[in-house]
Write a structure and sequence with these properties.
The chain is an alpha+beta fold and 756 residues long. The chain has 22 helices and 19 strands. Strand 2 and strand 3 form a beta hairpin. The chain is flat. Adenosine-5'-triphosphate (ATP) binds at residues 138-139, 141, 213, 215-221, 327, 330-331, 362-363, 430. Keywords: ATP-binding, Coiled coil, Microtubule, Motor protein, Nucleotide-binding.
Amino acid sequence: MEEKSQDTLPEKYEIVTDHELNPPPSSDLELRKGGKTITGSQEILLDQQRGLPLLKKIDAMSTTLQNLKKERMILSDVVKGISAESLLGSDVLSSLQILGTEHETLKKKYLEESSERKRLYNEVIELKGNIRVFCRCRPLNQDEIASGSSSVVEFDPSQETELQIICSDSSRKQFKFDHIFGPKDNQEAVFAQTSPVVTSVLDGYNVCIFAYGQTGTGKTFTMEGTPENRGVNYRTLEELFRISKERCSTMKYELFVSMLEVYNEKIRDLLVENPNQPPKKLEVKQAAEGTQEVPGLVEARVYSTDEVWELLKTGSCARSVGSTNANELSSRSHCLLRITVKGENLINGQRTRSHLWLVDLAGSERLGRIEVEGERLKESQFINKSLSALGDVISALASKTAHIPYRNSKLTHLLQSSLGRDCKTLMFVQISPSAADLGETICSLNFASRVRGIEHGPARKQGDPTELFKYKQMAEKLKQDEKETKKLQDSLQSLQLRFAAREHLCRNLQEKVRDLENQLAEERKARLQQETKAAAPFTKSSVLASQQLGQKAATQKKPPLGPSKPRVPLRGITNLLPPPAPLRKTGITTFASISTEDRENLSKKTTATSTRTLMMPRRRVSIAVRPPETTTTQVEKPKRRISIATLRPESHLNPMMTPLNRSKNVGDMGRRSFAKDARMVRRVSRIFSPLPGLRNAAAEATPVVSKSKFLGSPPTQTSSWKPKHPTVVALQKRHFIWSPLKLRGLKNDRRSLQPS
Ligand SMILES: Nc1ncnc2c1ncn2[C@@H]1O[C@H](COP(=O)(O)OP(=O)(O)OP(=O)(O)O)[C@@H](O)[C@H]1O
């Protein structure tokens, strides 16, 4: 120890003296003067040599110690002052940063690869079949060996999936399964094949593993095992813990364990804290998310394998067992271990909740096989009933029927969400090698073969049901909203279409109105011209009068309608006609019956009243004149409605006399008229037209009847045509006098229309 301090101390002193931070004591300086560096310990030695008293030595040592302390402080300050950059350099730091980024990228890639591996792994299992059947044959037990029973099961070591059963008639029956375990295969070998299915629960798949077979064939041994040979249940949980630890950087798992039994179609919780208290009545209920739950069932959170083993032992002890002649401690119930795995992906936050059911079924032997009575018989009946329900479910799944009878038994109802199309199923068919059990063995193998025949679709990952439920509700709301939106869109579209159609109709109607107005204006203009022309050949006075009339007409006539004003869009189209104008007195006169004096009076009267008449809007006046033959033909065909008056004494017999005309004529009798006898006046009005045949004939016979836009084009006059109808003949014989209606311009000067 002494030597070691001698080696190290000189260096420290060197540093101190170099930095000149703490000058050494005077004794040191003196010693250095001699050209030698002397340490504290050497000094002590010197003092000893000099024979200094002990106190002096202690003083010296404490001084040295203080110096050393100061030194340490200085050094620590120096160390603190050294930064990473000054120590490593910027190049090293930048390369460290690059390496860090590379590390992150590699980590990401690793995650991607691991998820891909998981996917492929799952695919491999799916290809192998989501329902798999393993056969396990136990060794001959002591009793069987003692009784000299031989094995009827033959295994071919090269064929891991085939076995042969030697029947009583020495024939062989071959069975094929996904894997066959012989009497020599231990628990590890069994679990090695089982683990891939088991670990699927961590990936979010529902899994169901069950052991089926007659009593005493090793179902409990395979599932539960013994403390020395632990079975699938314990190993499964062990494996789940191992993998969850392995994945802790990316996944967070929570494991829960429930243990129950179905005894005589009743569910019993095997994990109740106080087994002495009366059992709770447990029922299978369908949760809102569609999964099967058992409300009130104990769900223990497990954190370690030790805990699990204790738990399994507790549950196993609470199980109903009884003694049968086939098994000393025969399971009289179906024992179900449920492992619930809640997973959360720490990278993307995805959550899963899946179940793994590990089922140790009660013995499948037929009733006659074991001698039971009383309570045992009842148990056996329930066991057989539920096993047959399981068989029905499997058959329904195999035949892909729409209805799977899960609810026929408690067992199948419990397993509903883990025994079906979206899940992974593994069945252990347990058989006995003994010849004495041959019949039961063949039965079990046949059942297992049926199960193996089920073609499952790909298993589906199970999300967290509460989250799934939430998403389902959201999806439904979204669907409804979409429907509503679609409805609204449809109605909007139809409204738009209707609106467009209306608009189109309005536009068409407006155009029509404009056309009609234009047409009307033109017709008015033309009519005015025609009337002026028609009045020209009459007397000089009439010419003068017509000039005056023209002037007046120019000043008073209604101007032609201008372009239509912009109209308010039509709200609706109605077929209603405008309210009819009140009936006006119609003056019908015939010049034939008027004397010269009367005519003069008439002229005066007409002139006197013309102004008033003209001012009256739309006053309808029919004037009968007898123009010369030539004049009649020269008159251009008016386009408006006309009234024609003829001299006919027997007007009441005229078929063309309309009721209106007749009444008008009758009404006019008492009134002042140009005609001496109103009955002599026959007015042919186009308002009440005669029969079409007659009308055409009359039209042809009447050259003054011009085209009306309401009645079609007038027929052309032909000299060769000879009318046959008496009315037409009468009309033709008599002079037709054209009398335009609404001839307001001319009304002022009716004299101009008088025959010369
Ligand atoms: N593969 C095996 N290797 C060694 N011993 C086994 C094997 N299988 C079963 N045994 C033994 O056979 C006996 C009966 O097994 P077990 O109780 O598991 O049968 P079981 O099918 O569960 O019967 P039960 O339906 O009546 O409950 C047990 O003592 C068990 O240890």
